[in-house]
Design brief:
The structure is a single chain. The protein is of the alpha/beta class. It has a single domain, classed as Rossmann fold, CATH 3.40.50. It contains 7 helices and 8 strands. It has an 8-stranded mixed sheet, sandwiched between helices. Helix 4 crosses helix 5. The longest helix has 18 residues. It starts with a strand and ends with a helix. The relative contact order is 0.13. It holds the Pfam family DLH. GO terms for molecular function: hydrolase activity. This is Dienelactone hydrolase domain-containing protein.
């Protein structure tokens, strides 16, 4: 099987974003419409880590697209720079950030080899917050998976019990040793999802810290790679995809 892997410019209004697209070219040549997975990046912007995960998904038969929230060329070289890049998006969840999420979704929907009824999304750290917001907005995705993501609710949102049920299946993969996310936030997210009548799974992994999927993540307090959890959470993701969509 051969694969296409390439960087793609796409747009949010007049802002240029740079994503990374990967897919099995043989399936596309056969005229197939494939299940697609959006990949949302962590604090640094789209890096080699997201590109590798995107390529791995393509090898499994998916169309995969690593989205770019920050904009072309905007990449953090330090944790401090990452925090500054994230800040405006966390402060404008229902406008600027939502527009970036929709831009990535609209791009993959424009591809004639994408089955628009079988789109999923995964996200890491900041990207985990992104995919949970996609589910909250009911943008028509089949499933989303958050890996060591953020769980803060959308600011100033209506009470969840007054909103329509979430139709997207949700998997949240969380490290039990993640000191950056208080347990209270985990419980509050579960309450929110229950109030929205969502189909959700919340999996705690023993001894796993924040960033448990990322081998090169800085070794800070409560942060670190955990190989066993990385593999188990990836398998859990694939199990969910196999359940809710057929490739």
């Amino acid at each position: 099987m051969t694969f296409v892997k390439k960087h793609i410019d796409y747009y949010d209004g007049t802002d240029t974003l740079e994503g990374f697209l990967a897919y099995p070219s043989d399936a596309v040549k056969n005229g197939s419409k494939l299940t697609t997975v959006l990949v949302f990046h962590a604090f640094a912007g789209m890096t080699e880590f997201e590109e590798v995960r995107t390529a791995e998904l393509a090898k499994l038969g998916f169309v995969a697209f690593a989205a770019d929230v920050f904009g072309k060329g905007k990449r953090a070289k330090s944790i401090e720079e990452g925090r500054e890049l994230i800040k405006p998006y966390r402060e404008t969840r229902t406008t600027l950030l939502k527009n970036r999420l929709v831009a990535a979704l609209n791009y993959v929907k424009s591809l004639d080899f994408v089955d628009t009824n079988k789109i999923c999304a995964i996200g890491y750290c900041f990207g985990g917050l992104c995919v949970l917001d996609i589910a909250r907005y009911n943008l028509g995705l089949a499933a989303v998976v958050s890996f060591h993501g953020g769980y803060d609710p959308i600011p100033d949102a209506q009470p969840p019990e007054t909103l329509e049920p979430i139709k997207t299946s949700i998997l949240i993969c969380h490290g039990d040793a993640d000191s950056h996310i208080p347990v209270e936030k985990c419980l509050n997210l579960m309450k929110e999802l229950n109030a929205r009548k969502a189909d959700w799974q919340f999996v705690f992994y023993a001894d796993a810290k924040h960033g448990f999927t990322m081998p090169d993540i800085p070794g800070l307090e409560g942060v670190g790679y955990h190989e066993k959890t990385d593999k188990r959470s990836w398998t859990a993701m694939l199990n969910l995809f196999n359940e809710v969509v057929e490739k």
